[in-house]
Specification:
By secondary structure, this protein is mainly α. It has helices spanning about 5-25, 30-35, 40-50, 55-70, 75-100, 105-115, 115-150, 155-200, 205-215, 220-225, 235-250, 250-260, 265-280, 280-295, 305-310, 315-355, 360-385, 385-410, 415-435, 450-465. Helices cover about 80% and strands about 0% of the residues.
Amino acid sequence: MNWYLLVIVGYAVLLILLGHMVGKHVKKAADFFVGSRTFGTGLLFTTLIAANIGAGSTVGVTGLAYKSGISSWWWIGCSGLGSLILAYIVGPAVWKVAQKHKLYTMGDYLELRYSKAFRGVTSTMMAIGTLALFSGQLIGISWILNVVAGVPKAYGIIIASVVVTLYFSSGGIKSAAIVNIIELGVILLGFCAAAPFALQYIGGWDGLFAAVSQNMGDQAKIAKYFAWDGLGTETILGYFLMLTPAFCISPGLIGKVYAAKDEHAVKVGTLLNGFVQLIFAFLPMIIGMCAFAAFPHLENQELALPKAMKEMMPFGISAFALSAIFAAEVSTSDTVLYMLATSLSRDLYQTFFHPDISDEALLKVSKKFTVACGILGIFIAYYMANIITALAIFYSLMTVSLAAPFLFGLFTKRASTKGAFCSAVLGVAVVLGLRIFNGGKGIGILNATSLGILVAAVIMALSLWIFPAETRKDDESHFAQ
């Protein structure tokens, strides 16, 4: 009997049952979408941090650390910086607007601020990118099941999708928030326990340096592996420009901010989430480097984390740590499903096809879209190359098309619908153009995504003077005060 698999399966069953129990009390669309706007500081913190620590922050970053060393910290570090901006600048501003107008989704805000057409275009792009993000989470879970029980990738992806879909579809954000409390405890305790055991396994910091040096042999490569800028200026700058705004404008995170009961909960809950991300970033970094020291010839770097968890620590810690990875992937997967279900049901289906749909019918449609996305995610994940690729697709698409229109629209009355369209379209066009005609490379120290983001921001800034919005008195409540 495989005890590792038994522990993970038992944990998965617990999540499904808990989600189903909470789901029995979800009777309205407001419960499913924004938790009836009742989340206090603690609940907002747990559901945000559980969403932000997922496949990218665990399996993906550990694999990045396995290959590139200390500088892998910047992936989560830049995400944490974005969360700090969300806490005290973006979050409180958009929460006030959401409270006043009873908004459910990011799309609701974009239509209120710009137009129904802009909402439709951005929601469609987000749906495509979010499916890629969801597939990345499913891949992360499949790698865990592959290492601990030899489960093939395809079957692991199916199992992952079934678990997440079953408990999230029961009650939406309300089910996810309660389940996230358990998931967060398992994630933090598991990784905090695993990192010291991994270091101990290879003989501490001295043993780590000695093993890495022996595995690499080249002094320049060794120095790069232990340097904070080892990934290179272009890559780190790319992470900063892509991830920092992404973590303060993501539709999934904005939707959770809508669920806060007051502004204090937004500020403190989101701030704690950012601080924890910045600290947590060291743990997968350490584990990944230790994995390289002990197992330098892994064929797939994304197997580094589950391999380390299984081989470098005693069974009790190992089983708990593997459950922590599973919890991390599942907790982020439910946020991604939340983004998909709300975008498809509210931003597209209700807005463009059935505007007079009842609250009860909208709730049913949202659950059906959740199940459909769970199934579609299986097929996309099967053909997706790896987790970081999946996440890069999502974050690039979202940040390039949405960051400038959203942030300018929130803080200045001059931002116009025409400017938002030009910014989003030209920004995406730059990225696609570089990928097609320049081999995916950027210009100078800016990669393709970074350049697209900056172009979108410049276009949006210029539009404030070239074709500013005509502000009416009834528009005043659409902006941050």
